[in-house]
């Protein structure tokens, strides 16, 4: 009888674990789909970041909630004009990525976002910050490429760096276009691990290739 009771208890625990995982997956799928399909305002990005924070607190063995919380804060930082808010958002995004990396170290996607944070910080004061954060951004992308050479976001971000850096400081629009095109080639064969793993960027890069002057 005791063995039978133990068996039922273990079965119930197993069912609870499966339910929790399914609930996590479905919730994340809805949120990621919203990021994919909705043109977000600053307030919406902040709300999404806070939602991902709550999921991260409940699912501490998962790296993706912190990844997406950081992503939302970075997107908001790029649209901000207030230097103090840009730095505060960048600081918060860094903390999210630190937590994500504890769960999944050596992560190409995390290093891509770290590179974007460095770029956001440069935007506060390009003349003084470029010397500090420009090399940091490049280092993060070098790590991201080494960790996953097939990651299309690496080449997109490398292209962004070359396109928006003045020629006097190493920028090259022609090479940027080549990197954008390489990114699109990588997207053709790129397969995310699941519906909620990072897969953003393809449509944006296509738009850049069509509209930017090279």
UniProtKB/TrEMBL annotation:
Q: Which domain of life is it from?
A: Bacteria
Q: Write the record's keywords in alphabetical order, separated by commas.
A: Signal
According to the UniProt entry, where is the signal peptide?
1-20
> Which named protein is this?
Tetratricopeptide repeat protein
